[in-house]
Amino acid sequence: MVELGILFGLLGVAALGLVVVLLRRQNGRTENADGLRIERARLVQAQNDRVIHGSGAVRDRHHTSRPHRP
Predict the structure, then answer these.
(1) How many Cα atoms are found within 13 Å in the side-chain-facing hemisphere of 12?
(2) How many of the other CB atoms lie within 10 Å of CB of 39?
(3) Is 50 a residue whose pLDDT tops 70?
(4) What is the mean pLDDT of residues 15-33?
(5) What are phi and psi for residue 43, nearest 5 degrees?
(6) Of the candidates 40, 17, 21, which has an alpha carbon nearest to the alpha carbon of residue 29?
(7) What span, in angstroms and rounded, lies between the C-alpha atoms of 64 and 69?
(8) Is 56 left (phi over 0), alpha (psi -120 to 50) or beta?
(9) Average of per-residue pLDDT across 28-51
């Protein structure tokens, strides 16, 4: 029973440490114009990738690579 308490205690300390690290971390946004342009370009690229590789595009029956069999 003591071992179980130690295990949960260590898990709690690890979780608390992760929360502290995440709360103390700086927000990664940039303030200068070049950084904002780079950030915007990456955001647009990520949105395009989500559209291109999303489940709707992958499972679209109209654009399959296999020929249609009657």
Answers:
(1) 6
(2) 13
(3) yes
(4) 80
(5) -65, -45
(6) 40
(7) 12
(8) alpha
(9) 84
The distance between the two most distant Cα atoms of the chain, rounded to a whole number of Å, is: 69
Contact between 10 and 3 under an 8 Å Cβ cutoff? The reply is no
What token pair was written down for 70?
């009657």
Tokens (6 digits) for 1:
């029973």
Average pLDDT of span 48-54: 85
Measure the CA–CA gap between 27 and 5, rounded to whole angstroms.
36
Q: For residues 25 and 42, give the distance between their C-alpha atoms in angstroms, rounded to a whole number.
A: 21
Sign of the Cα torsion 3, 4, 7, 12 reads negative
Give the pLDDT confidence score for residue 23 in this predicted structure: 86
Arithmetic mean of pLDDT, 33-41 = 87
Q: Is the pLDDT of residue 63 over 60?
A: no
